[in-house]
Amino acid sequence: MPNLKPKLYNFASIQGISEHQLREHYSLYEAYVKKVNELDSMDKLSDCFKDANATFSCMRSVKLGETFALNGVILHQLYFENITNPCGSPNSKMMKLINSQWHSKENFMNCIKSACLSMRGWVIVCVDYLTKSLRIIGLDAHDVGSLWCATPLMVIDVYEHAYFLDFGTNRGKYVDTIFGNLNWNSINARVNCVRI
Ligand SMILES: [Fe+2]
User: Fold this and answer.
1) What are the pLDDT digits (tens) for 91-136?
2) CA of 34 to the centre of ligand 1 (A)
3) Which CATH architecture has domain 92-192?
4) Residue 140 neighbours by CB under 8 Å, 6+ apart
5) How far is the CA of 18 from the centre of ligand 1 (A)?
6) Is-above-0.90 flag for pTM?
7) What CA–CA distance (Å, rounded) separates 139 from 77?
8) Residue limits of CATH 1.10.287 in the chain
9) Which of 35, 58, 103, 180 could form a disulfide with 69 if both were Cys (CB 3.0 to 4.6 A apart)?
């Protein structure tokens, strides 16, 4: 199994969020990376897996922790990537997807903000391959509400740990700050990989 290493991000490029807030957040991400490596180093044939039970058991703990930690790593990497080095604007492919349902970028961003104020973990703009459409989905935790067969384009962390040091309970101000730091080149590159 490969040994995951935390990726590095240009936090100095982010305006309006303190280094203290970002460093504390990054330390949580590092902890998820560490846990994925611990999980991957476990003996898959260990005796502790023999007493399988859906109330509590070693296997149950590992299976619950596995998707929590993996999604914790994946989502934080997508988030840090799309809020560092802010630049650009939605490309024509993205605007076509946005306009087909929301009719303007302003309406689209207002809906994302509303979702950000409604969820407890993550808001993710993705392309859903079943309906071949753009969706704004919400997760209450890393592993609660994930959508399969979809490509995430924009990932926003709305856990309190992402903003509380700087913004307290003012999540709206945090979301506005994130909107001002979006790396649209990164988001456009993701949508360019989507074949719909
Ligand atoms: Fe986070």
Assistant:
1) 999 999 999 999 999 999 999 999 999 999 999 999 999 999 999 9
2) 15
3) 3-Layer(bab) Sandwich (3.55)
4) 119, 120, 121
5) 15
6) yes
7) 16
8) 18-83
9) 35
Domain with CATH 3.55.40.20 in the chain: 92-192
Q: State how far the Cα of 159 lies from the Cα of 155, in Å rounded to an integer.
A: 12
Q: Is the dihedral of CA 174, 176, 180, 186 positive or negative?
A: positive
Q: Which of 85, 104, 84 is nearest to 94 (CA)?
A: 104
Tell me how far the alpha carbon of residue 179 lies from the centroid of ligand 1, in angstroms. 16
Cα of 102 from ligand 1 centre, angstroms:
28
The fold of 18-83 is: Helix Hairpins (1.10.287)
Distance from CA of residue 133 to its chain's centroid?
A: 19
Whole-number Å distance between alpha carbons of 62 and 17: 34
